[in-house]
Amino acid sequence: MITIPVITERCAGIDVGKRGLAVAVAVGPADKEAEIKTRWFATTMPALQQLHAWLREEGCTSVAMESTGSWWISVKTEVEADLRITLVCPRKHHPKKGDKTDYRDAMDLAIHHRHGLLTGSFLPPRGIVELRDMTRRRKKLLGNMSSEKNRIQKVLDTAGVKMGNVISDIFGVSGQEILRALLNHTDVKPDELADLSKRRLRNRIPELTEALRDHYLNDHHRWLINQSVEHAQFLDRQVEEAEKKIDRSLEPYRRQYELLQTIPGIKEHTAASILAEIGSDMNQFETADKLCKWARICPGNNRSAGKKPKRAHRAGQQVPAGGLSGGVMGSSSQRRFAFSAKIPAIDEEGKAEGRDGSVPRASANRLGGTETRPAIRGARCCGCGESGKRKTDSISHQPIAQDGGG
Question: Which residues contact residue 71 at a Cβ distance below 8 angstroms, ignoring those fewer than 6 apart?
Fold first, then answer.
């Protein structure tokens, strides 16, 4: 008979729910079967304080619980001061179907935790948690801003304003000048609108004039566009505030933050996102391979009978994977690095080719709200659509540093 040794003599398992917690405590010497005690607690803060006091009375030194939604966070915050937390992924702890209750789940967690059979998830310190909240908030704000830009483009297409057929980025400097004139004046002529274009786009004034001719932009369309512009301006201010707060929160991790930026393709925003997701202490991950698996950037093993079916990557954290892949794409556009020769580019016929030049990247422009500067910060100097050109600041015409995914 095989006996699994006991690792923790006094521990607890918590089945986390939205309105209640089923808690099981396993106590007893290592050479004997544990005594199981169960209780039910609400999820209010006074009830969590009672839970904490009961665990201390029972002499528990460690607690295991599933990472159910965001409900486990308040439990962790209450008991982490003097108890060791083991956060278990629900996918790795599967109670038997048909024989499942809240108390049974809690008892299974306690018993498995007593024998050291549970693998804990990465729990970053409070400073990293707050930095992670801010970087994810910034990413969400930028996504909302992109949605507003898409709504503006849709309204323009609906109204027959087809300048997007000529200007690759209608939120560049030239596009914003034309859009502002369309919103503020109802009787402006197409050639006058086209004459607002800047630099290289002036070579395409005839095409732009044709795209702006005979449109039917009315007050209803202008109201819709103004709504989106005002919302985007509000989002722009929030992004600026978030970036300032992120920069202040990076002070304790300034050395690691700067070290990440020495990687080709990793710039300020991507480095902050990676640091917020994986933390500054790599002792949390036993090997680099396990870090790659946690970051969801390594394929799974699905080979059976000599065949390997196509499947998605294994489960893991999706947020760092997006930042890392963006950094790789940014580094691939720099010719002096070996990455540019290793990442294939797919041509129009669908054939894989080696990438030998820079790759046009989606603009990370954001709407602003003053007449003295472009409404979209970081916009191109013009929107002529020529690929492979470096972005320049619309005021100084100086090159803007590329950020591989930030």
Answer: 16, 17, 18, 43
Among the CATH numbers 3.30.70.2190, 3.40.190.10, 3.30.420.10, 1.10.260.40, which is that of 10-114?
A: 3.30.420.10
Rounded to a whole number of angstroms, the distance between the first and last alpha carbons of the chain is 56
Judge whether 180 and 172 are in contact, CB under 8 Å. no
- Over residues 342-366, the pLDDT tens digits come to 555 443 434 444 444 433 333 334 4
Per-residue tokens: 394 = 């619309």
**Does the global pTM surpass 0.85?**
no
The model's pLDDT over 246-293, given as tens digits with 9 standing for 90+, comes to 999 999 999 999 999 998 888 899 999 999 988 888 888 888 888 888
CA 42/CA 148 separation, integer angstroms: 41
Backbone angles phi, psi at 393, to 5 degrees: -70, 135
Burial code (b: 16+ CB inside 10 Å, e: under 16) for 240-261 equals eebbeebeebbeebeebbeebe
3-state secondary structure at position 305: coil
| Bridge partners, residue 12, by sequence | 25, 63
Q: How far apart are CA 273 and CA 133, in angstroms?
A: 10
At 344 the three-state DSSP class reads strand
Asked whether the beta carbons of 222 and 183 are under 8 A apart, the reply is yes
Q: What confidence tens digit (pLDDT) does each residue in 212-222 have?
A: 888 888 999 99
| DSSP 8-state secondary structure symbol assigned to residue 165 | G
